Automatic annotation (TrEMBL):
Gene3D superfamilies: P-loop containing nucleotide triphosphate hydrolases. GO terms for biological process: negative regulation of cell division. This is CO dehydrogenase maturation factor. Residues 4-229 form the CobQ/CobB/MinD/ParA nucleotide binding domain. SUPFAM superfamilies: P-loop containing nucleoside triphosphate hydrolases. PANTHER family: ATP-BINDING PROTEIN, SEPTUM SITE-DETERMINING PROTEIN MIND HOMOLOG, CHLOROPLASTIC-RELATED. Signal peptide: none annotated. GO terms for cellular component: cytoplasmic side of plasma membrane; cytosol.
Length: 322
């Protein structure tokens, strides 16, 4: 399952992304964690040192290399330069798996608390004033577009803060989106934005309350988000220790918060896997981007990159291996 963590800045979404990643990895299931936030803090939240993180090659600065790898021998894509972040896979494309031979994991990943961590990378000096962060997040979108994840396999993505995630079609790449919300007017306001933007795209959004102190906070969340409330995390000494740069063992996490993480996994596992929808939405957002800017940028009609007879998923993976 592909899982996004979203929310306003300071809501605790990076902390929740790290805790959920650790919770899954502790159960010895395959997990990939991707830091796709402009504030690159997921690696630190997973206990990686600054030195190790500095050695990790960012996805966002190797776009051409990633495009070249993913296009494979797809006859509809003439070159890596012809690809954009929304170019979907087709017959001949290089499809990825969570386990086994995955060249992106080998090239850009590092072990972190039992998971594989990849990062989109921070803004560089040359990006300031001339580029938006979506140019880097596009690398993660391409990874997700080409990934065939199987049962009991998980990708956890720490998204950029606020509603900025909707500036690309990446928000449709997930089987479940957890929106982390504090029990405040601003906290639940981001949920209402998300719900409005996602309404016509069949995106599953569940709210995880964070920094909850008492029953009044829970009732506030219920009042404002209703049935979307999936659980809540209470004020945590474990999290405070993380935020101070310490590296506590997951076994020290408070019992009520462990139960919330377990409930979140149950909810993810119960979510339907719809490869037809995944494929259709890939095509829809590729056409939208092509018409808005990509055709002009590439000097070609990128609608021709769509393979109408291709359905992403396990069958495509099996056929590609033959």
């Amino acid at each position: 399952m592909k899982i996004a963590f979203a929310g306003k800045g300071g809501s605790g979404k990076t902390t929740l992304s790290a805790l959920f990643t650790r919770h899954l990895a502790a159960q010895h299931v395959p997990v990939v964690a991707i830091d796709a936030d402009i504030n690159q803090n997921l690696g630190a939240a997973l206990g990686m040192s600054e030195e190790r993180l500095a050695e990790l090659p960012p996805l966002g600065t190797h776009l051409e290399e990633i495009k070249e790898l993913l296009r494979g021998d797809n006859p509809r894509i003439a070159s890596a330069q012809a690809m954009v972040k929304t170019t979907p896979p087709g017959r001949g494309s290089r499809l990825l798996t969570l386990t086994g031979d995955n060249p992106l994991h080998a090239r850009f990943g590092a072990a972190a608390r039992g998971a594989t961590l990849m990062v989109t990378g921070p803004f560089a000096e040359k990006d300031l004033g001339v580029s938006c962060y979506h140019s880097k997040v596009g690398a993660a979108e391409m990874y997700l577009n080409h990934l065939v994840d199987g049962p009991g396999e998980y990708v956890v993505v720490d998204m950029t803060a606020g509603a900025d995630s909707f500036a690309s079609g990446m928000f449709t790449r997930f089987d479940m989106t957890f929106l982390v919300a504090e029990p405040t007017v601003r906290g639940v306001g981001v949920y209402r934005q998300y719900a409005e933007y996602a309404r016509d795209h069949d995106v599953a959004i569940r709210v995880i309350g964070n920094k909850v102190q008492d029953e009044a906070d829970v009732e506030f969340l219920r009042e404002h988000v209703g049935e979307a409330l999936a659980g809540w995390m209470t004020h945590s000494g474990f999290v405070r220790s993380m935020e101070k740069g310490r590296d506590p063992e997951l076994s020290d996490l408070e019992e009520d918060n462990v139960k919330t993480l377990a409930r979140m996994r149950d909810m993810v596992d119960a979510a339907p896997k719809d490869w037809e929808k995944f494929t259709r939405q890939s095509a829809e957002f590729h056409l939208r981007n092509a018409q808005a800017w990509a055709n002009e940028a590439k000097g070609a009609d990128l609608a021709s990159q769509l393979d109408p007879d291709f359905l992403m998923g396990p069958t495509a993976l099996t056929e590609a291996a033959q």
